[in-house]
Every structure is written in C-alpha cells, then in structure tokens.
Amino acid sequence: MLNRRAMLRVGGAGMLGMSMPKLIRAAEQTRQIKPKAKSVIFLFQWGGPSQLDTFDMKPNAPAAVRSPYRPIASSADGIEVCELLPNMAKQMHHVSLIRTMTHKMKNHASAGYYALSGHEPPSDDQRLRDSLDLFPAYGSVVDHLLPSDSGMPSFVSYPHVIRDGSIVPGQHASFLGKGHDPLLFLEDPNDKNFQLPELSLPDGLSIDRLHRRREMQQLVDRQMRLMEHSGEARGFDQYYERAISMLTSDNVRKAFDLSAEPTAVREAYGRTSYGQSCLLARRLVESGVKFVTVYFSNSIGGRRVGQGGWDTHGFDNTRMYKIVDKYQMPLTDQTLPTLIDDLHQRGLLDETLVVWMGEFGRTPEINKNVSRDHWPQCYTALLAGGGVKGGYVHGKSDERAKFPLEKAVKPEDLAATMYQLLGIDPNTEIYDRDNRPLIIGGRPLYDVIA
C-alpha cells in the first residue's frame, strides 16, 4: 500500500502526465530496490565548481563559452573530463555523472542550504539565516531514521562550519533536536598533533567524576524542565550521553587516529587539510559511521588565491584560469580519485556512496574578468560507489551547459537517491517543531542505480 503522502505525490505527478499504472510501478520499484550503501561520504565543494571546466566540457562551443582547458578521454567509454584531472580520468568507470542538476538559487547561502538539506529555501536571499524552521542536514535525517548501532556516531562533519557572512543553514539537526547534530570538529586533520579534544578528558577529570557531574545536571534539568520547553535544548541529554560514550570508546579513538595510517597512504591523499579530511572519511565509514560531510573550505574563495572555495569571479585580478589550475583542480585530482580507488581496493566502494558537488555551477559565458559567475540552472554532481552505475551519465545539458535538455534533477531528487541507496524510503515523513509532517526527499534517480 502507498502511504498518504506518496499518494498525494502520485496525484501531483499524474497531473504532469504520468499515468496511474506507471506511478504505481514506480512506487513498487522503490520498494523492490535493495539498499546497497551502508555509508555516504559527502564532499561539499563550497563556492560552486564550473561544470564547463570539470565534467561537462563543451569543446565545440564558442570561444566565449568553452573552457580554455582541453577535454581528455577517461576510463569510461564516451566520458571526457578536464585535462587538469588526469588521475580522476582513470577512475571514471566507477562514476555516475549527473549533468543536469538544476534550481533557481543564485546566492551562496540559499543555494548552500538547498544543497546540504535537499529542501528549497523560503527565498533566494544571501541573508538567509540559520533557523529551527529550516530543514536538517542529510546526516541528521539519517541519524534520526537509521542510527548507527556500531558504537560510532552516525553523523560526522568537519573541518569547517561554512558561512558566507552568516552561517549557512543545513549543517545540523535543526528541528530534529541536538541529539541528531553531527559530531562536528574544526581541528585540522593535517596537523601533526591532530586529535579531537572531544575524545579526551580534561586533566584531573575522571570518568567517574564526569558521571557524577552528569547526574547533578540531570537533576537540575528535570527541575527546570528544559527538555520539555526548549527547542534549543531538546535532544541535548542524548547528545551528552553520546559524548560520554565516545570518550570511553576505543573504537572511536582508533577511527580518528590518522597516525595509524602508513606514510605512503597519507602522502597519496595529500598532506593538506582537505586531503587528510578525505582519508579520515574513509577511516570513519570503515569504522561504521553512516554519514560523513567533508567541507572543501570554510569560505567560498572569492578574492583569495591558494585557499578558499570555488567562487572565482575574477575580482582584483584573481582570475579563474590563473587560480583553479594551481589550487582547486590539483587538490581535487589528488584527493577524489585517491579516495575512490582506496575504497575500491579495500572492498568498501560497493557499500560507500561518494558524492562530490557544490551548491551550483558557473555561467556558460566567461565574464569580463576572464572568469565565471554563479549559475544554478545547470551544473554537475558526481556519484561513485554505494550502488550507483559506473561509467554512466544521467541527463544531458544543452550545447553550452546552460540548461538541462533531458532528465533535469533537483536537489531533492538527489537527496531521495541517497536515502534510497541507504535503505530509507524517500517518502518518509519527519515532523517539524510545529508537528507538521514533511517528506524527506523527492524522486530517486532510478536510472543511476545499478
């Protein structure tokens, strides 16, 4: 039987021309697909990479559109990638490209929230503020519906809190409560003394003393009824208990111990914050973490050289084609293919979904600063492992990678695909703080699923 929300969706889709038999078959298909992914590694490329300079090149487009970089063949028949990604080209037989991601949010904050939550923001506003009225992060939904039973946290994110002025929504549990927030840390995994203060006790504080403190706090909490009356505090008790559990867990400490990795492996990922973050992501899913979010940078980039994200408008002579080939692209070509290959060699790729994407793409037309501006109408997301097809392209963009021609995909559809691969029904409802039911995803991309 289809649930009530699924039936409402069926009715809406029917008005778009899909027949009831087709819709019922689609619903049955959802039920028949066996989950293949145990974990997701979500590599968020803050700032918005250019589709035309990475995975959807248009070498026959006019000079004002096409990339100055050449496309090169890859390990997947018929799929070309940028010449600055030669190592990634060797891994494309593991990859599904979605070349028709699309939405209408042109500002980083609103587009970032959309990408991190799979839910359209109330407005396209750079001043969009974090709020308990907005949707939670993917990992928080996973922790709520499919919590880890391995003793590991379900959701870990690092090594940044991203912002563009104010903090971007969609990075925590929001109305689901703090008990479903990620284990968030800002320490640099590339630091030679990297360790999490959350996994070590302060000097002079024993576990027994910590438990006694907790018992006293619980008494105060009950008297003040914080857990009943404060949306901000809801779930904090669960969060605290989880923190104590992690402090006493050898498995958790071992998972975060990057010093246990051979030097050759650490060098292969790259001795950078992002490179070691990707290596740590592999260690975490190997240890049972369900959802890992790695942020490429804490800033969009903008006018910075040699740091920051993918936002390269060309202001102050920071031209895209004098920057990305020295920082963003080499960093990507070292870490992303190494992660995919490492997971494959360890037998983990089939059960680990890797997602690489930004909040939007870049304009087809190269601007007067010899760079590209924001473009959400058509951009590319990369998926590998976790039950998706290898060497596959979903959808087709037009001759300038400006608009989708076939099989447009919205962020909520990508969210539904991730949930589906994890074994979570995308039609599942969660409830906001006003107890209103909200569906967690859109329509899964069945063509992408192997």
From TrEMBL:
<protein>
    <recommendedName>
        <fullName>Sulfatase</fullName>
    </recommendedName>
</protein>
<dbReference type="InterPro" id="IPR010869">
    <property type="entry name" value="DUF1501"/>
</dbReference>
<dbReference type="Pfam" id="PF07394">
    <property type="entry name" value="DUF1501"/>
</dbReference>
<dbReference type="InterPro" id="IPR017850">
    <property type="entry name" value="Alkaline_phosphatase_core_sf"/>
</dbReference>
